[in-house]
Amino acid sequence: MSVLEDARAMQEQLVHWRHALHTEPEIGLDLPRTQEKVLTALDGLPLEIGTGTGTTSVTATLRGTGEGPTVLLRGDMDALPVQENTGLDYTSRVANRMHACGHDLHTSMLLGAAHLLAGQRDKLAGDIVFMFQPGEEGYDGASVMLDEGVLSAGGKDTDAAYAVHVSSMRLPHGVFATRKGTIMSASDTLHVEVHGSGGHGSAPQFTSDPVTAISEMVTALQSMITRQFDVFDPVVISVGSLHAGAVSNVIPETARFDATVRTFSETARERVQERVRTVLGGIAASHRVDVEIDYQSGYPPTVTDAEETAFTGGVIEELFGAERHQVLADPLTGSEDFSRVLGEVPGSFVMLGAVPPEGDPETAAYNHSPLAVFDDRVLSDGAALYAQLGLTRTAK
Fold it and tell me: Does residue 155 come out as left (phi exceeding 0), alpha (psi in the -120 to 50 range) or beta?
């Protein structure tokens, strides 16, 4: 049978793994129950298995029969601090914990790929490294695994790396999407605190008002983007938290806001940090207040390799047909720590539409929503893609 036929034959097992993970989600870098489930599912396969020390990761290496390339396949395992509200019969049993981004599907697909490839080990011209990663959701688990040597887990350097990520909206059911170059944005965080001198609201001339200063800062950041940055290399700054004062007739001494910053190139990413400090510093000086700026770098842009992405698209079309492959015209505004891996190794990142067939991708709940639903029927296709990428790429 083909890889796809084999994958579809194990659909029931894939669903079992996925539901077990979904009902018991864990967040962050410490996922002991998830790690245990992964190790149990891998038991008996001809794999060299290692576990992390800085995180509960699992790295499994499958040795091929030749000296071909080493290929890394990654599946993230962590959930989100979200209270599930889907009403599914396998709803999360843990309060304020939910697999709202589909990582339970990624883990199950990668487990499936491990079984599929172990069954075709004699056809592997090189080695496969399965990267089961905690802490993607803001904990930078990829960096931890890189520091612990995941890229050399097979005993030699990794030649190519691939990851699949499901989407609960936008993409039609079962459609794979790729993009060469930047496919996802960088994600940084801006914390700003303004210090003035408070006083009575009826006599602002005797104060240095941080409220008016911070209000101008928030709007000035938007003007800065439209006038100082290239519209074809976009920047997004969204203020999600703004706090000042407690009562209507008192000017407070401090005010603060927090914002997310999204950029799609390292050039824009570096420039926005410099311009933020200049713009906010100038406003602070004009209002006779002080400003503290804490600019925290998060995940860099996720940038795929053009050749590896073309290869990936070809594998998708060979397995599923050209109608199941979509090339994204624009990057996505989310961010990913698989960007860390792609910064070291050429590879690609694939999106997979997991909206239930009866759902509307344009109105379905977004990833991270307490209402996000991912269709089990894409599990076998994701497992087959992982496996076929490994089989084909090790032979290059």
Answer: left
Backbone angles phi, psi at 36, to 5 degrees: -60, -45
SS3 of residue 18 by DSSP: helix
pLDDT tens-digit map of 324-343: 999 999 999 999 999 999 99
Say yes or no to pLDDT of 88 above 80: yes
Q: Which amino acid appears at position 125 of this protein?
A: A
Supply the angle between the helices 32-42 and 103-119 in degrees, to the nearest 10: 20
Distance CA 127, CA 108 (A): 20
User: What mean pLDDT is predicted for residues 10-28?
Assistant: 98
- Using CA atoms, how far apart are residues 394 and 68, in angstroms rounded to an integer? 5
E strand intervals along 139-215: 160-167, 176-178, 181-184, 186-195, 199-200
Sheet of 71-76, strands arranged across: 48-51, 58-62, 128-133, 71-76, 160-167, 347-353, 176-178, 325-327
Place of tokens 């589909």: 102
pLDDT average, residue stretch 289-301:
98
Closest CA to 327 of 169, 161, 103, 171: 171
- What distance in Å separates the CA atoms of residue 151 and residue 68, rounded to the nearest whole number? 16
Phi, psi of 298 (to 5 degrees): -110, -130
Q: DSSP assignment, residue 90?
A: T
Partners of 167 in the β-ladder: 353
Tell me, letter by letter, the H, E, C secondary structure of 256-288.
EEEEEEEECCHHHHHHHHHHHHHHHHHHHHHCC
Could you tell me the end-to-end alpha-carbon distance of the chain, in angstroms, rounded to an integer?
22
What pLDDT does 357 receive?
A: 87
pLDDT confidence tier of residue 25, bands split at 50, 70 and 90 = very high
d(CA 14, CA 328): 28
Which amino acid would we find at residue 205?
Q
The fraction of the chain above a pLDDT of 90, given in percent, is 98
Burial of 205: CB neighbours in 10 Å, binned 0-12, 13-18, 19+: exposed
